[in-house]
Structure formats: C-alpha cells, structure tokens
Amino acid sequence: MTGRDTTGGGAGSRLVGREADVGLLRAFVDRALSTGGALVLTGEAGVGKTALLESASQYATETGATVLTAAGAQFEADLSYAGLNQLLYPLLDDIDRLAATHRRALTVALGLSGGSPPGHLALSTAVLDLLHQAAGERGLLIMVDDLPWFDRASSVTLGFIAHRLAASRIAFLAALRSGEEGFFDRTGIDEYEVDPLDNAASAALLTDRFPTLAAPVRQRLVAEAQGNPLALLELPASLTGPQRTAQTRLPALLPLSRRLQNMFAARIAGLPAPTRRLLLAAVLDGTGDLDVLRSIPVGHLSTNLAAAERAQLVRLDRDEDRLLFRHPLTRSAVVQLSTSEERRETHRWLAEHYQDQPDRRAWHLLDAAVTPDPEVASILEGVADATLQRGDAVGAVTAMLHAVEVSPRGRERSRRTAEAAYLAANITGDLRRVTQLLDEIRRTDPGRANSMAAAVAASSLLLNGDGDVDTAHRLLVSALEMQSDIDLAEEKNLVEALHTLLLVCLFGGRPELYAPFDAVLSELGSRTPELLWVTRRTVADPARTAREALDRLDAMLPGLESEANPSRIVRLGIACAYVDRLASCRAALWRVVEGGRAGGAVASAIEALFLLGNDGFFTGEWDRTLAAIEEGLKLCDDHGYRVLTWPGVFLRGLIHAARGRTDVASSQADEMTGWATPRGVALVQCYAAHVRALAAFGEGDVEAAYQYTAAVSPAGVLASHNPHAMWLVLDLTEAAARTNRHREAAAHAAAARQAGIAAISPRLALLVAAAAAVAAPAGRDVELFEEALSVPGTQRWPFDLARVHLIYGERLRRTKATTEGRRHLTQALETFQRLGAEPWVERASAELRATGLAIPTGVAPQLAVLTPQQQQIAMLAAQGMTNKQIGARLALSPRTVATHLYQLFPKLGVTSRAGLRDALTEQSAKEIGEPPRKDE
Ligand SMILES: Nc1ncnc2c1ncn2[C@@H]1O[C@H](COP(=O)(O)OP(=O)(O)OP(=O)(O)O)[C@@H](O)[C@H]1O
Ligand SMILES: [Mg+2]
C-alpha cells in the first residue's frame, strides 16, 4: 500500500499555475496545525491532487510539524486496518506511552497482539490519543492520498478522527478522485475541488517541459488536455515524431483518463516480459516492498526494474527499499495489460511469500484460485473468524463471502453461505444481503435450503424484518427435525438455531412453542451449551425455572469483561434481563453499542441499547434511557428492523407512562397492539398491557390498571412462560386491593410467594413482600411492609422502592401513624421528583398534604396562568434543564420547548431562564421549607 505515486521531491516548487491553490492549502495547514482541521481535495484523475498534497506536506515539514502519510492502493487485498497500519507505522514505538486500554485496543486492531476486539470508539480514541501525542507543540499533518481505496475499517476510524480535530494541533488532509467514494464519512468535512489549469497555465507547462513542440501542436494539446496536467505531460510523450511536428492527425478523442491509461499501457507493453511481471507483482502486492519483489522468480531484480525506471513509470527509493509508481493510472494499465493466468500465477507467488501473514496469504490464494478450492475456502473462513475477532464484523462477512466463492458446490459451500447470511442478518444488519444469499442457496443447492444455518438466517430475517413468528418457528423446527442425529460439524449452527428459536418462542409467548426446543435440549443433554441452558431457564419461564440457573448465570458474568462476540454479549444480557442482573453487563453492552455506531454489529447494538434501556428504566436513569432508546430506534429505522423496535417502544412507553404523559404512552401502546395482535406476537401485546397499566395507575384509574395487569397474568397465578407476570406482581396485587378485589389480591400475593421468585433478586423480593403487605388485612400489613423495606440492596431500584414507600405511607396515614407515614411519603416524593414521575409526585404530595404537611400543590400560583404543559416546561427549565433535556423528558422537540418558553416568559413577567428560576424558587422556598406541624 505504500507504493505511493510521486513525482519525486520538490513537486511544490515546480507546480505551474497553482499559486492560488497552494496559497489556500498553506493557509489551511497553518490554521489546522494550531487549532485543528480537516480538508478533502477532490478532482479528476491527473488534475494534480497528489502534487498539491505533496506541496502541502513539504510546507508543513518546513514549519517543523510532523507529517504522517498514507495512500490507498486500488488493487490491494481488502485487509482490515492495513491503511491504519501504514499511517501509524512511524508512531509504533510511541504506542507504549498510551494508557493501557488504548494500547490494548490499538495493538489488537493493528494485529500486533491478540486479545478481545476493540470497540470502534475505544480504537478511535486510542488512535486520536496517539496522534495528539505525536502532534506535540509543533503540530501534526495527516495526509491520506487516494482515500477511497483505503480499507473499510481504517476509513471508518479515520472518519471518526477527522471529525474530532477541533482544538487540536492536528491537520487532516486527504485526496480523492471526484465520484469515487469510499467508506470515509465526509459529511461536514470541508471539500476543496481542484480545478483544471487554465489555458495560459497549460501552455506555460507545455513550453516549460517540451520546449521544442510546434506552436500549433501546443495549441492542439492545450485544447485536448482540458487543463489536465497529467495529460499535458503525457500526451506529448505519446506523440509520434510526425504528430509532434503537426504533420499527422492526433488520435481520436477518448475519455481523458482512459486515454491516459492507454498511453501508459503503450509504454508498458514495450517493456521486457520479466519487467512487466515484476510490475504486476508490485501492483498486486501493493506494499511497494522490494523484498517482496525479490521473491518473484523472474530473474535479477535491479536489472529488470531498470527498464521501467528508464521508461519513467516507476521510481526506486533505495533508502527505503521501495518501488514507487509514478501515477495510479500506471497501475491500472499494468493490470489491464496482463492476462488472467499471469495474475493468478503472480498471486500464487505472493501467497508463497506471505507464509507468515495469514490474512495477506489468504487474499492472494483467493485471487490465485481458478477452480473452487476447499483448502483456500477454509483458510478464508479462518480469516473471517479472525477479522470478527479484531472487531470488524463487516469485514468478516466479506471474507466469509469470499470463502463461499471458492468453496466447491455442496455442503460446505451452503454452510458458509448460510453463515454469511447469518452474520449479515444478525451482526451487520444487512437484510438485503441476506435475502440474496438465501436465494443463492435455494438456487444452487435446494436440498440445503433447509439447512440449519440457512434456517437461522431466514428466521432471523423473518423475525428482524416483518416479525412472522409462526413461520420463523416452523422453519427452525423443521430444520431441527431434519437433523436426524446431532451432527457435530453442524453444532455451531445448531446452537445458533436454538438461540434464535428461543427468541422466536419468547416473542410468540405461547407455552406450546417451546416443546420442540425443549426436545432438542433434552436430546443434547449434558452437551447443551451453558448459555443456552441458562437462558432457557431465566427467560422463557423464569417464575418457575430461573432459580435453578442463577448460580450458573452468575458464574458466567465475570467472563463478560473479555467477551468479544457481540451476539454472545447480547445473549448474556437477555439471560440477565428478567432476573435483574443487567448491571453486570453494562460495560460489555456499551462495547457492543460502540461497535454498532462504527457500522459494525448493528442488530446486536440495537439489542444492547434496549437492554441498557431496560437496566436504566429499573435503576432510575430515565433521561439517559430515553436517549439510548432513541438511538436504537433510529438504527432500527435506518436498517428496516421491525421486531427489534418493540423493546425500545415498550421502555419509552413505560417512562412516559410513569411521567404522566398518558397521551404519548397510549400511542406507543396502540402502536404495539396494532402490530402484535394480527401477528399473534404475545410478548409485544404484554409490553403494551404493561405500559397501559402503568399509565392507568398514573391517571388514578385503578380499575383499568387491574384489567391490564390481569390480561398479562390472571390474579392468583403467575402465567406460565410469561416473564412479565413476575414484573407485574405488585401492580396486579395493588390494583386488585384498591378495587376491593381482596380475594384476588391475596391469591396473587400468595402465588408470588409460593413461586419463590423472591430468591431471584432483591427487586423481586421487594415486590413479592410488598404484594403480600398490600394484600394483607390491616394490622398484619405493617410487619410485611417492614419486611419488604428491609430487603437489602433495593436502593438500586428507586422507582419500585418509592412505590412501596408510597403505598406503605398511605396505609400508615390512614391508621393515623402520621409521623411514620410522612417519613415514607417524603422518601417516595423525593424519588418521584428526581425521576420526573409527575403523577406519582402528585399522589405522594397529596398524601403528605393529608398528613397536614404544607406541600406545594405542584403548581406555584403564578404558574396557574399557564397550560399544564407550559407549567411542566417552566418547572423543568427552572431546574436548569436544557431545551433538549426537557424535550427528551416530555417527548417534544427542543424547538417546541423553545417556542413554549418564549410564550410563557411574558405571562410570568420574566425575560430569561434565570428570571424563571428566581420567580419559582421564591415561591417553593416559602412552601417546601415550612417545618412539619406538631399536631400529633
Ligand atoms: N500544476 C502542475 N504543474 C506541474 N506539474 C503538475 C501540476 N499538477 C500536476 N502535475 C503533474 O501532473 C501529474 C499528475 O498529477 P497528480 O498525480 O498530482 O494527479 P492526481 O490528481 O493526484 O491524479 P489521480 O487522481 O490519478 O491520483 C504528476 O506528474 C504531477 O507532478
Ligand atoms: Mg493522485
């Protein structure tokens, strides 16, 4: 990749007609070296981008800055992080000075050490750190030529970096041909289009370099070259003697770059055969390393290269032992002139040379293969696995697809196709790709269309796409049934199939769906993989089976720290969700999110975001949860995932319900039932009922709350295979008790006790004990509430805990235990206020007022002139929240919030947020600060 094109040193000083461009670049370099900045040069082939980059680089060096350069190479194998390797090569020694986590991320990505694959964010910040370090006081110029030919993984990292140079001493300057886009994210980065030279400059260039040209020929060349310096320099060389002196017609007009390439081709064709083979090897290798060329068996290197040097096609940098091509078009021409047999043979030689670099070797073997080659296929499959390990999921799919290409028809080929489909469906989120792959399997190998991996891919597609649970279930079950004995070669796919089937069953929610799944598990017996065994117990029917799996689940959690595989992290997260252990998964789940942000494992990232949201809801981090959910839903939208959205919609609904935004919550619930009912997706129907129940509590409509919770699980039983039954234990019992269904309340509390779910987590212990207290007759309840509140570790679940304090406080007040009651109510109130759970704030405040305590009505008198929504906005703004935060909390756009504020300021007679705060705090200080009355 370092065989970078160059015209030789000092290009800057010899540029004709580029004063303005050079001036602009110098100004950019000056500015960016002191305050950071990025610029991309675009323009047609040969217009002079590389020449301008070099002038900038020379200038930066003169100012004392460090310069790092790299260039993409068109024919180089698709090696992940090759570009980054090239760019950072001069800094490798400095990696030791980075913080340990950054050092680890960087060395794994660059293949210098093994370890768990770095997340995108970790890697990018590590690189940025290294660059900052290199920039020091004098600044650093990063210069990347031919950006679109950089490998994908490096491009993504560079894109991240180029967007984060503000206030650094780092200048980023890159070039690309107009119309050739790669993976580098250019949005928001300044672009400078390099225009062709004007006629005067073109003529000056010709006169300078070809003083003997006849004047009419010069004019003709100026017209034909259209201001393209490469054409101006090369056209004369290609003219025959008579053409030069204007005696013969010039060749017909071809597109310029094509023509230039042909000119180079003509020159290459004149070289001796061994020289051409060496050039071909240099192009296909792409490293420019002369050592590689020495291993090519075509005779003496220097002798053979001399001819190419004389023809001015290449230059040898003897100090660095490198071969440099004068122009990229030369490379295209070399390849264009070679036969496919020559290319294959060259790739074989290169593969031979790279015995100790498995990735490079694999790519060369791939290109050398004529017929399907099982050995090459299996090497490439290995590359796919290793690429996934380095954290580049998309690269892994590409490698796997290449493995498919060279696999002989049959079993292995279908398996790899299916695996690529699976990776694409579940990790990269490329659903269109999956459809194509599955079609290919059906076409080429109909017998295998039902194979395990194909079934997994297809059912992932169904599940991720439209949510056809029953078809997905049928597909997987029939693939499992076709499997007469459990085939070890297929075991990896079998496990995938079972994990997918488990999710299909969970969404479907009907107990009978699990039967085929359980049958396979019992056949597998002790060979059942640990995670699968555990997940079956903690997710499918946790009320009955979770307890027996907790020790084994807990034993797996420490391993998350070094877990690299995003889908495994997400699966462990799923196993933890219903048993309240997500806190242990946070760091790993964030790694998955980072990977997805970098365009890696998207589907896993979405699931990770919602698992984090799930954790955040129960642990009371609601604003952060809403942000995570928005991000996840946006990804679903971008990638066409449907089923994956629902956990996000559910959590968003819960938060809005808890915050009294009943309108938003019910529209979320409507969306869920509208989709889930016709499809029979019971889990999503439960989600909707759960949201509606919480909203109903907020509205004080306890009867509705009872109906919704009882629809999830009838009073007196924890519905089988429905994890939400556990979550709603207290809700159902409270709703029953408050609607005078005392028998139902008692039955439900007893069922929860009997099920033993209290042993699962402190949160469930709290809910079960509180349910018993709520259901207990007056007199018995105090002891049970005390038991609930003495469960250790429940502070981690503030909303649940506050609800228990609230109910207890209400009971105490009714039995005239006012002081005690106030204590619990105040605790509840504080939590609800912090969470922004408005209806609960109201309920707790009302109770406190009923104890005789003066609590603001929630609305300061001066706020009464506002609409309820404006009141909320005013209070939040007065607490110091930004429009964006207020918007997130109230499900409004920041712009709408701004409009409301603008309208409400005059109503309150204030002109600023600060004024608002003063106006409101004066009022609340008067009310809240009042000591309790001594009336008992
Ligand atoms: N203003 C100039 N004065 C003199 N020579 C120039 C000028 N601009 C470019 N050249 C020469 O023209 C040739 C083509 O320029 P260069 O390689 O920079 O083009 P490029 O835009 O990078 O093309 P590509 O997109 O193919 O990489 C080089 O030999 C370069 O030295
Ligand atoms: Mg160039």
TrEMBL record:
- PANTHER family in the record: TESTICULAR SOLUBLE ADENYLYL CYCLASE, TRANSCRIPTIONAL ACTIVATOR DOMAIN
Q: What is this protein called?
A: Regulatory protein, luxR family
What GO cellular-component annotations does this UniProt entry give?
cytoplasm
Pfam families per the UniProt record, alphabetical: AAA_16 (PF13191), GerE (PF00196)
What biological processes does GO assign it?
A: regulation of DNA-templated transcription
Q: Could you tell me which residue ranges the HTH luxR-type domain spans?
A: 859-924
**Keyword Nucleotide-binding attributed:** yes
